[in-house]
């Protein structure tokens, strides 16, 4: 059986009965629009199938006589969806009614089920959820038909409430919506609701700064429209009882019935009346009602002198009264009225209580309330439900961030989230039992299309993208590229995936707002150079795509790919050039002035990008690119600073500054100044080439010669002229090279001596995956363990592409704790030359302990020594608190580095790492001999040689 | 009786007998030259007075039959000078011989006495000692006559050997002498010897890098000429037995009779032969012979594993052998052969030994040897002879520095020494018994004319300039200006003295080589602005003088005044502008770019100054200006860096950065960012005006208004436009001003709130010299004590103009130690509002303890509490050791700041400071309440209000 949806310029007619939800009808029109976009033909919507040979019948169970009729006639069976949450069936029915040959029946178990069923149709038409908010243009098709193969019964969504939070909406979103829609109006929200539903979301926190959702529609139009669409509204954590933060200032006052103080002690009656009236006004719409109370504008309510118990008792009273008001005022849509309490900031402490003071968790007054947790604002889970609490009636929610306004540094510009991390953290949340609400702060929404797609799909279909699928982030990327840019040839899709993967990894490693000239070291381990090479590689692909993407796909390409990627990369390059500018300026090298020019070019490009965006599609997005995004010096943007451009006055006489590439010690001084430049790279097995750099610090070019009479050394050049910078490659034959060799660079005005330090003329015999000491240094990527031994109830597992360098290794299941005796472990093999004391640096994910008041630890055993427990968190550590310096450093750095002193014997040693607490994800181990010293760097030294 | 020296175009003829020293004859010719320069007439020199009616008779006792004849005839009496060291008589004798009417008789007790007598004549002719090396041009006189009033018997010099060390002679002196004299030749040294003798010096350490005095004359001509002139040669501390450092490399070798190793263990015979031959070659000239031995090129001789005793024993053996060689080889000019052992670096430790190992001081092998001490290379005395050692036969010498090549930072360019400090330290040396040798490192000699003049005059006439004359530095300055620039009108002399006093104070506070952009804080306490104002004041005077000084005086003015002063001030301004450049760049203010231009102008001026100098007088000094002098990053110059010029890209929207003048906290953020700008200056009594600054961080000018409704506040403007920078003065009437007032600066894009903190609407009644708390701060100049109480055997005395700010206060006599019970003391009165804990910071001179292994301390009593002993030196302190960070910081900063916690009561408190150890010189006391915080600065906060 083939159902002609569109064929020969004609579309099947659509049947929507009088009983259909108006919201469903509106969505049906949108999907008709999708159909027209794809096929050029807009289906006609009728009230009944009379006269339609092959209609599309759309209905919601219990709201559709036609569906009832079909089922009663045995033509269709909806028992698979009946009574379920947001499910739909999509099936071809033969001869459904008299005179009707066949029908496509889209039936929802409830309003949103039907809407998802409609958008399932859009999906089959290859219309992107971003068709409206992301200017996606679907491929044209002249003929669309369905067969029984397309029959589909949807599952219930994995997470009950799934949505996002439009936040930090000034200056970008706010200016944009005022310019285009006259404010935060229903005209604008229609676009947001539609997008949310297309993403199979159902839940929204609306914009809240200089905006009150229920007043700005105009009037209640926003709330009404949301309810019509089945969008469940909620407020952010500090806006209880369906009232908005900004509303209070509008109605408070000395003579107001609500009083003037946002203080439950002094103005209990006024506040209760305020909440009552809010519930009465908005309770008629579908909501998750926020309860609890915080001080005004995100602050704590009682002064610092109040005891924990006083605070808890106050909150209990508030919640009791609020819940009473809810029961009295609001009629639930079905069953219980969903309520939510955010365990955010100080409220978390009230929830857990302490040893002598029971917290809210031990109180029955929260029964049935969804408890909302929050990560640390930078994408890392904080406390998660303990096993005992997972059963809480009302369940758990998670408030996550792709955008954040706060310390240490705000990020509100473009996407800087990275799917492997989002996947890891949100699957962890799910596994810990957070399955009732997932909401993510998307700031202006614009430019968060990519991670938000993933977040929504993960929340909807955990079975597909969740913890069982370790490769989900990469698979999702591939499918997303296919979904959004279906029309591109495969080669371009590959490039586009490379771009998305590449720029998000870089922006994960350091958010653009937090980039500084000294983030990546300009010289050490050549990391700035390596990062620049990555960035330039991605930019090349981006530019190629921009030239080759078909015209109609350009707007979506520009918004979802080009601007976020190029914006990120350009700010990165700005800071890399600034780092080199500062480095060169500080050693007096005139190339600093060239780097300053490169910085200027980056700033000009940054401005041009926003300009272009604001003019796209006739100015559709004008205003949306206004966020500050360079050089935050603290959380707020008023002290943002562009990186300083340094310029250099050349010395009055010939002067060269020399250094070894990858190692930043600089000198202009001759041998006799006692500062030889050590080329230590040859101490690593397998490394036979390295280079040194000569920078000119004088006005005129400086001629030089390389003077070397050592056997086994060759240079890429031995005479030359340094205009600004010369990098000269040195190749050694370690079997010929004498010990302690050196060579000299001579020029008028001085000479520079370089000492060649080398090792491993002959490679030692070692078992596979044995790392060889490279002159006091060993650097190991976590996945290059020599052995991985499962424990009792879990095993270390590689998380591909996770973290800052190669990957992460984490003990799964992620909820499991282990004792040293039962723990899974990883063995790392290192071969040193000579016994000694080393510092082992463990680079692990910036995780927080999932249980309140706990630390994070892992076990470490060196050879046959006793296993030691290594704790990762310093005393007083407080995740999410911008006053906690170690946390701030860690979230910006995206890594936690934990040093341990270890004694290693001469020859082969084993370092065994045991999993203990959930959350520990190892990325890298760096070992430094105590007589050596690690160079400062952002990524740490590159992995050193190991035997295959 | 009037003696016509030159009259009516005729000069008296000069009589120099055949018996006269050839050196005296040569000097006589030079003084004839002086006479011609002044009068246009050159006297004729004859062998006898026959035919001269009124001759000038010049002779040395025991080398002049004429003098003998005069004395025998009772015409003259030389008993006052006979047998004395370097004395002369200058007297008119009536009818000395038959047919001779009168004579001017210049008689020397010895060769140098006669020479000084001749230069006394030059002095009377107002010919500067710098006539040759400083291009001084004396005033013309047509008539010179003398009367009995000019009769003069000179005193013996205060210090036996007085001279300087030409050192660190590359690149300046070396290039200069090669260009003009073909090397370090006698032709050049003639100029040096003459200058030394004109300065009444007698002792020289010759240049020693790429130069060997006794080989370069050519041949022995240098040594021969020195001897002829009576210049006593010596070598620097590590060149024993009349051998030069560079000589060794010329004669050493596997087949050399001297062997190849500069190692007394392995090459004893060779070295002894080397020294023997040196003594034999040069011992015939007048020398102070260096003994002892150090490793090659200023390093220690034995390895680090040798014990103290091994080192001492080795040195004893060396010295014994060297002294034996001297006795065997050298015939002393008179009495004992003068010998010198430098107690420098490690040799000092060998001298003092330790508890279990007697040092050289307890050995009789040094009897008769002058022991040479050295300050810390930065002008601060180190160990001085203890009372027990002062009687050492052979006496003591001091090696002082106006120029130094070494850590932490070399200073070899122009004068940066300050007479009050030189006076204080060299009188201390003298009082501690160092009276046999004074030698000062003058680097290239050029540009050290001013401090060297003082050094030589102090050494020659301690009675006049020494410790009894507290005002000697200022008096000397006046007399020096008079001596060098006699021809200037008084007003210009005053300006010139202001220039010398002013620039040397600034360069004393921070040597130009050690200036950094962050030396003076660009904002705190407005110190950079105050320093710039000083520098500009001096520059105005300099430019006025340059325009007005008579043409013939311009060369000397340029060399002795203009270049050193302008050079210093220009490098200072460069760094001040760099400080502002960096400060402005870091807050994103576009005025940074203007400061960068100012930096460029300073660098251009610096180059132009050297250019001009090199072209002066037809290139006479070409090469002498080549020393590096900007931005030393360590001791040697190869890593010198010009200050980095930072430039700023303006923000894309209006942005003002505000701060309170004198207080560097900057913000662009509105009130709600929680960063109000506090105007705390009004917390000080007597302060009713202050200002705040607005910097523009955006491209276009930004209009602002000042919004203030507080009574008692007026502004220099309340509306305006900030193009780059606006400073707005605020005047308050404290009696009207309400507590916690504030005002707001508004502009498109933000607003800035300033809070007015004020105190002392009514002044409290206090005794005179009581300092009032100024908002947690009290700053006291040391001389503003409330009482000065003498102790047993000494009293605190104000050293005018001493130190970094106003003056110093030091217990004199400087050799005295005190116990707390007998110590002199100073009382300081401070009135606080509210009891509390304070940090008292004692700013004292960067002195070192005069006794080896001791600390420096003073006593401190707060109100009636127990007196505490405050020690100034941290553990491991090692004066003169560039590896000792506290010492390095102190010598560059020219101050030592010692913090003490003190508890002060509400109301008036007394801080009593007791002298304990010699060397402690107090400059300033700053008190900060523990709840407040001192702003970083170079000079500390300015003195705060005290009751008159």
UniProtKB/TrEMBL annotation, chains A, B:
Pfam families: GH115_C, Glyco_hydro_115. InterPro entries: GH115, GH115_C, GH115_sf, Hex-like_dom2. GO terms for biological process: carbohydrate metabolic process. Keywords: Hydrolase. GO terms for molecular function: hydrolase activity. Residues 770-943 form the Gylcosyl hydrolase 115 C-terminal domain. The keyword Hydrolase applies. This is Glycosyl hydrolase 115 family protein. It comes from Caproicibacterium argilliputei. The lineage of its organism: Bacteria, Bacillati, Bacillota, Clostridia, Eubacteriales.
């Amino acid at each position: 059986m083939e159902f002609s949806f569109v064929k020969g310029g004609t579309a099947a007619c659509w049947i929507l009965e009088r009983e259909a939800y108006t919201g469903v009808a509106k969505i049906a029109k949108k999907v008709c629009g999708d159909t027209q976009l794809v096929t050029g033909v807009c289906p006609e919507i009728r009230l009944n199938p009379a006269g339609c040979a092959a209609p599309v019948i759309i209905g919601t169970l219990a709201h559709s006589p036609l569906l009832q009729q079909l089922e009663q006639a045995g033509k269709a069976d909806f028992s698979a969806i009946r009574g379920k949450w947001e499910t739909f069936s999509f099936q071809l029915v033969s001869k459904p009614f008299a005179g009707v040959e066949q029908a496509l029946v889209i039936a929802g178990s409830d309003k949103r089920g039907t809407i998802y069923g409609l958008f399932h149709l859009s999906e089959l038409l290859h219309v992107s959820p971003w068709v409206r908010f992301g200017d996606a243009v679907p491929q044209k098709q002249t003929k669309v038909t369905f067969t029984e193969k397309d029959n589909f019964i949807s599952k219930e969504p994995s997470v009950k409430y799934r949505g996002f939070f439009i936040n930090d909406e000034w200056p970008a979103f706010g200016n944009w919506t005022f310019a285009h829609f006259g404010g935060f109006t229903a005209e604008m929200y229609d676009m947001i609701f539609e997008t949310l539903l297309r993403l199979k979301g159902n839940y929204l926190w609306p914009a809240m700064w200089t905006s009150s959702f229920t007043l700005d529609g105009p009037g209640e139009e926003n709330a009404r429209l949301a309810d019509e669409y089945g969008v469940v509204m909620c407020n952010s954590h500090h806006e209880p009882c369906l009232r908005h933060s900004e509303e209070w200032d509008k109605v408070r006052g000395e003579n107001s019935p609500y009083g003037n103080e946002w203080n439950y002690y002094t103005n209990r009656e006024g506040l209760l009346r305020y909440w009552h009236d809010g519930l009465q006004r908005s309770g008629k719409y579908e909501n998750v009602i926020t309860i609890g109370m915080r001080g005004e504008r995100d602050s704590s309510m009682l002064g610092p002198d109040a005891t924990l118990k006083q605070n808890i008792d106050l909150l209990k009273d508030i919640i009791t009264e609020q819940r009473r008001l809810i029961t009295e005022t609001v009629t639930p849509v079905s069953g219980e009225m969903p309520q939510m309490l955010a365990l955010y900031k100080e409220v978390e402490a009230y929830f857990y209580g302490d040893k002598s003071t029971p917290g809210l968790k031990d109180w029955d007054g929260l029964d049935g309330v969804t408890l909302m947790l929050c990560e640390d604002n930078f994408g890392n889970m904080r406390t998660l439900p303990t096993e005992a609490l997972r059963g809480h009636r009302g369940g758990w929610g998670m408030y996550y961030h792709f955008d954040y306004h706060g310390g240490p540094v705000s990020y509100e510009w473009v996407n800087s989230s990275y799917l492997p991390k989002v996947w890891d953290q949100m699957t962890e949340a799910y596994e810990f039992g957070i399955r009732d609400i997932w909401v993510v702060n998307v700031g202006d929404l614009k430019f968060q299309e990519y991670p938000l797609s993933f977040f929504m799909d993960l929340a909807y279909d955990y079975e597909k993208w969740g913890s069982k699928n370790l490769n989900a982030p990469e698979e999702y990327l591939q499918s997303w590229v296919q979904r959004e840019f279906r029309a591109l040839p495969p080669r371009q899709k590959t490039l586009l995936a490379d771009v998305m993967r590449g720029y998000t990894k870089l922006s994960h490693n350091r958010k653009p707002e937090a980039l500084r000239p000294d983030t990546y070291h300009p010289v050490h381990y050549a990391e700035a150079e390596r990062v620049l090479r990555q960035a330039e590689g991605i930019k090349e692909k981006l530019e190629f795509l921009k030239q080759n993407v078909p015209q109609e796909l350009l707007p979506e390409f520009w918004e979802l790919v080009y601007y976020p990627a190029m914006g990120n990369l350009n700010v990165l390059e700005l800071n890399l050039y600034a780092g080199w500018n500062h480095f060169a300026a500080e050693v007096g090298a005139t190339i600093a002035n060239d780097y300053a020019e490169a910085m200027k070019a980056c700033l000009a490009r940054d401005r041009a990008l926003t300009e272009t965006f604001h003019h796209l599609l006739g100015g559709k997005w004008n205003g949306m690119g206004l966020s500050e995004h360079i050089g935050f010096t603290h959380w707020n943007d008023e002290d943002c600073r562009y990186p300083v451009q340094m310029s250099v006055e050349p010395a009055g006489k010939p002067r060269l500054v020399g250094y070894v590439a990858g190692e930043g010690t600089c000198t202009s001084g001759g041998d006799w100044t006692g500062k030889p430049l050590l080329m230590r790279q040859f101490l690593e097995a397998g490394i036979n080439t390295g280079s040194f750099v000569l920078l000119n610090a004088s006005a005129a070019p400086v001629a030089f010669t390389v003077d070397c009479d050592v056997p086994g050394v060759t240079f890429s050049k031995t005479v030359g002229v340094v205009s600004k910078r010369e990098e000269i490659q040195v190749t050694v034959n370690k079997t010929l090279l004498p010990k302690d060799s050196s060579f000299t660079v001579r020029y008028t005005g001085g000479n520079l001596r370089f000492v060649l330090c080398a090792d491993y003329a002959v490679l030692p015999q070692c078992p596979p995956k044995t790392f060889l000491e490279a002159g006091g240094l060993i650097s190991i990527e976590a996945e290059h363990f020599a052995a991985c031994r499962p424990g009792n109830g879990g095993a270390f597992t590689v998380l591909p592409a996770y973290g800052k360098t190669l990957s992460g290794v984490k003990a799964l299941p992620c909820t499991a704790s282990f004792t040293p005796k039962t723990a899974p472990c990883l063995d790392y093999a290192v071969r040193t030359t000579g016994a000694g004391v080393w510092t082992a640096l463990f680079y692990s994910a910036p995780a927080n302990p999932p249980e309140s008041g706990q630390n994070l630890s892992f076990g470490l055993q060196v050879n046959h020594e006793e296993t030691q427990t290594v704790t990762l968190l310093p005393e007083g550590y407080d995740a999410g608190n911008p006053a906690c310096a170690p946390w701030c450093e860690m979230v910006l750095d995206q890594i936690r580095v934990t040093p341990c002193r270890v004694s290693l014997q001469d020859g082969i040693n084993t370092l065994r790492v045991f999993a203990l607490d959930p959350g520990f994800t190892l990325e890298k181990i760096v070992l430094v001999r105590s007589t050596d010293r690690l160079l400062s760097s952002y990524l740490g030294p590159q992995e050193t040689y190991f035997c295959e």
